[in-house]
Amino acid sequence: MKFSRExxxxxxxxxxPLHFTYTKLAQCPSCGSHIFLDDAGARLAGEQSVLSQEPxxxxxxxxxxxxxxxxxxxxxxxxxxxxxxxxxxxxxxxNGNGYWLSVDxxxxxxxxxxxxxxxxxxxxxxxxxxEIQSWSVTELGExxxxxxxxxxxxxxxxxxxxxxxxxxxxxxxMMTIEFFGKTKKLYSGKWLDxxxxxxxxxx
Amino acid sequence: MSIQALTCPNCGGSIDILGGGRQVVSLTCxxxxxxxxxxxxxxxxxxxxxxxxxxxPFRIGMQGEIKGVKFTIIGMVAYSCSVGRTTGxxxxxxxxxxxxxxxxxxxxxxxGVLIFSRRTRSIPSQNMPRLSPKEKLVFEGKTYKxxxxxxxxxxxxxxxxxxxxxxxxxxxxxxxxxxxxxxSLERTKNESEYSISEYLKxxxxxxxxxxxREVSEGFHPLKPFSAPLLKAFSSVSxxxxxxxxxxxxxxxxYKSGTTVREDFFSTRSRQINFHIDNPKHLVELxxxxxVNNSWVYYDISVIDEHxxxxxxxxxxxxxxxxxxxxxxxxxxxxxxxxxxxxxxxxDYLLLFNAPENRHSVATxxxxxxxxxxxxxxxxxxxxFFAASTLYVIRYASYQAKLWKHLQDDDDD
Lengths: 203, 412
Description:
The complex is a heterodimer. By secondary structure, chain A is mostly beta strands. In chain A, 0% of the residues lie in helices and 54% in strands. By secondary structure, chain B is an alpha+beta fold. Chain B folds into three domains: 4-224, no CATH class; 227-255 and 374-412; 257-371, Sandwich (Jelly Rolls), CATH 2.60.120. At the A-B interface, loops of A face loops of B.
C-alpha cells in the first residue's frame, strides 16, 4: 500500500511530498523549513537545522534491502549523548509500515513501536544489567536532539532531551524504552548485520 | 577521520585519538604503557611496564580496506596462551579496526596469517562450551565443527579499545571452524561475545594497508586446504579414468591390427617379404621362439622398395627356468614384440640375422598392420589415478595437521 498526500510549505509554497499517513513533522525540500503537520494543516516549526554529512550506509530517500525486504529512509534525526552522536532513521517498507533504524558506530538496530506492556514506570528505577522479564538492560542513556531532516512521525524540538534504555536478548533481539517526560514508548526489533545491508535496485 | 592531540598524564607523551567511535573506553600511551580511561578524563587505569611491542607488519593509525569497507587500526591487543609469554608459538595480535559505517572489527595476526573477525548478535544452535572437538553446530544455516577451547592472556595493549584491558587479563575462547570461516565465543568474567571470523588472503590486506614487508604464512585452522590444481584433476579424474579404460579396452579388442604376413623358420638368417596398405598406424612385429634355457639374438632390419633401411633393431630373446629348493622358477620370455611405423604403403623386406647363435632356433614371425597401442591412454589413466591419490594423501595430511591437537591432548 502506498500513501501520498500533498501539502504546501507555509514558508515558500513548495509542495511537500509526504509518504506516511502519520507524518507529523517534515522538512521542506526547497527551503529547509521544518513544518508541523496537524489537523489544522501545515505550520512552521521552530528552529531549523542542517545535519552535517557523516559517513553512512543510509541516505535519505535511497532505498536499501536487508533480508529480502526493501526499506526507504524518509526521515533522519541526529542525537547527542555526552560527546558522541548517533542517528535514527525513520523508514517505510513497501507496505507503508514505519520503522526506526538506530545507527551507532556501525551498530544497526531496526525497531518498530509496540504497545507498552513492561512493568516499568520510571527511567530512574531502571538499572544497568537489570533483568526485566526475559530481557536484560544493556544500556541507559540520554539523547539530545541535534537536528532532523525529511519526514518524521512525531514532533521533535532541537535540543529536546529524552532518556532511553536498551534491552537485549542473547539472539540479537532488542527492545528500547524511551521516556519523553511522563510519556514512555516501547520499540521492539533486532540487530542488523551492516555487511548484509544492500543498496536496493529501486525505491 | 579526525586525529586529536592529548598528552599522557603519566609521562607527558602525546597520545593520538583516532576517533574510534563512542564505544572506545580506554587508550594506551605508546611511551609508558599507561592505560587511560576515555570515559573519565583520561585517568590512569593500569600500566604495561617494560613490555616491548610484539613484532608485526601493522601499526596503529594504518588504514585499508577489508571486504570493501575502509577501516582504521585504532588499537592492538597481544595475547598468549601462556602467562608471561610475549612471542613465539601460541601468541598473536588482535588489531582493533574501526569504520564509521560498519563499526568495530578485529584483524588478527598470527604467524603471518590474517583473520578478520567481527561481533555477531546471532547465536549458534548448540551451546559451544558443551561441545567436543569435531562435534557439529549450526550457525545461521551453516554447519561448523567445534575445534578447541583454551585460555588466552593479555600480554600487551596499545591504542584505543572498547574495553579496559589489563596485563594477564584472562579470556576463555571457544572456537568452531568451517574454513575459511570460523565462529568463536569469548568469555571473560564480565561478558560473553560471539564473533564470526574469516581467513583473509594476506597479500590483498598488505596491499590495501600499504604494508611492503610480506610475511610467510604459517598453519592456521581457518586457512582452507588449498591444492587447486590437484583438486581440479582429482574432481575430473573418475570421468577421465573411466573414459581411458573404455578406450584401452576398445583398442585392445578392435585395434590390435591385421596380420599381413606369418612366417616360420629355423635358420640363422631369414628374409621375409610383406606388404603394407595402411601406413597411418603402427606395424607390429611379433616374434615367438622355442628357446629353452637358452637365448637368441636377432639383428632385424626393414628395407623398403628403394633398398633403403627404414627401421632396424636388435632383439634378445631368452628364457630360463628350473626347480630349486622346492620351488619352480623362470625368467625371461620366449616371445617379444616390436613396433615401427613406415611412411608409405608398399612392399617391404624384413631381414633376420642371428650372427652369434651356434644353433638354429625355431622362430615364428607375425607381421600386423593398422595397430594402435593404448600406450597414451594408459599413461593418462596412470596420471589421473596418481593425481587423485596425491590429492587424497595431501588432504588426509592436512586433516591430520588440523586435528593434531587432539592427538597431542591424548598423548598428554
